[in-house]
């Protein structure tokens, strides 16, 4: 069965530092992968998605993610975080063109 | 911009009450979804609908039902609320018009069952 693992429950980063959030998936076919962000008290907003082609995907708010088939990973990166990036981040895989299976999320805290 | 709205941001109900959570989207999307979000468990799919009057069970449908009488509206029903249904409920919609299109989420309803 398909699954998504986000091994880091909580990450703390200093403002201006680089960020990498990990995501590993288990899925038999070609995965279609997403990263969503949830700011406090808000719904989920799409940061970026990967379907095919270039394995480095650019998203909104300065985020990017790299698909690595050999490692079954789709890690999210940002070169320099801002205090407004504090949120919860969810990785997801699309199953059967219908359902999204989500990871358990990583909560990001930014310290001054 | 797509807008997905949910009828309440916060809701407090008593055990055994019938609870209705409403979701409305304004972009003529064919697909609508209900998730619940719990700490450490991420989002789990309760039900989804790909057309009016159509519904499919998700991963955790027990204790819930849904209704989709109009394309823009998707209701989640708790027939007899229980304390283990205290959670954040998120609605989402998605268009069929583009392959592998994203889901758009509402702001969520935080339900507390006492």
Largest interface by Cβ-Cβ < 8 Å: A-B, 23 and 22 residues
* Average predicted local confidence, pLDDT of chain B: 93
Helix content of chain A: under 10%
By secondary-structure content and strand pairing, the structural class of chain B works out as mainly beta
Biggest sheet details of chain B: 7 strands, mixed
Radius of gyration of chain A: 13 Å
**Helix-strand pattern of chain A:** EEEEEEEEEEEE
Poorly predicted segments of chain B: none
Tally the helices of chain B: 0
- Cα shape of chain A: globular
Strand content of chain B: over 45%
Please trace the helix and strand order of chain B, writing H or E for each element: EEEEEEEEEEE
Alpha-beta content class of chain A: mainly beta
The count of β-strands of chain B is: 11
Main pleated-sheet profile of chain A: 6 strands, mixed
Distance between the termini of chain A: 41 Å
Overall mean pLDDT of chain A = 92
Your description of this structure?
The complex is a heterodimer of chains A (112) and B (114). Chain A is mainly beta and 112 residues long. In chain A, 0% of the residues lie in helices and 54% in strands. Chain A has strands at 3-5, 10-14, 19-21, 24-26, 32-38, 44-50, 56-58, 64-68, 73-78, 87-95, 99-102, 106-111. The termini of chain A are far apart. In chain A, 33% of the residues are buried. The mean pLDDT of chain A is 92. Chain B has 114 residues and is an all-beta fold. Helices cover 0% and strands 52% of the residues of chain B. Chain B has no helices and 11 strands. The interface between A and B is medium-sized, with 23 and 22 residues.
Summarize this structure briefly.
The complex is a heterodimer of chains A (112) and B (114). Chain A is an all-beta fold.
Which tags fit this structure?
heterodimer, A: 112 residues, mainly beta, 54% strand, B: 114 residues
């Amino acid at each position: 069965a398909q699954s998504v693992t986000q091994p880091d429950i909580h990450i703390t980063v200093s403002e201006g530092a680089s960020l990498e959030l990990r995501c590993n998936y288990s899925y038999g076919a070609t995965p279609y992968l997403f990263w969503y962000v949830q700011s406090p008290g808000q719904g989920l907003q799409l940061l970026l998605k990967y379907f095919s082609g270039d394995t480095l995907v650019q998203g909104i708010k300065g985020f990017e993610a790299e698909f690595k088939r050999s490692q079954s990973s789709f890690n999210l990166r940002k070169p320099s975080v801002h205090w407004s990036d504090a949120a919860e981040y969810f990785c997801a895989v699309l199953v059967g063109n219908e359902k999204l299976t989500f990871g358990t999320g990583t909560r990001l805290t930014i310290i001054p | 911009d797509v807008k997905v709205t949910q009828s309440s941001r916060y809701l407090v109900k008593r055990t055994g009450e019938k609870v209705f959570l409403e979701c409305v989207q304004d972009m003529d999307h064919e697909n609508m979804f209900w998730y619940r979000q719990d700490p450490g468990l991420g989002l789990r799919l309760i039900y989804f609908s790909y057309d009016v009057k159509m519904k499919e069970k998700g991963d955790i449908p027990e204790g819930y039902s849904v209704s989709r009488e109009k394309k823009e509206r998707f209701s989640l029903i708790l027939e007899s609320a229980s304390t283990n249904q205290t959670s954040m409920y998120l609605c989402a919609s998605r268009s069929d018009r583009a392959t592998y299109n994203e889901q758009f989420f509402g702001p969520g309803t935080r339900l507390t069952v006492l």
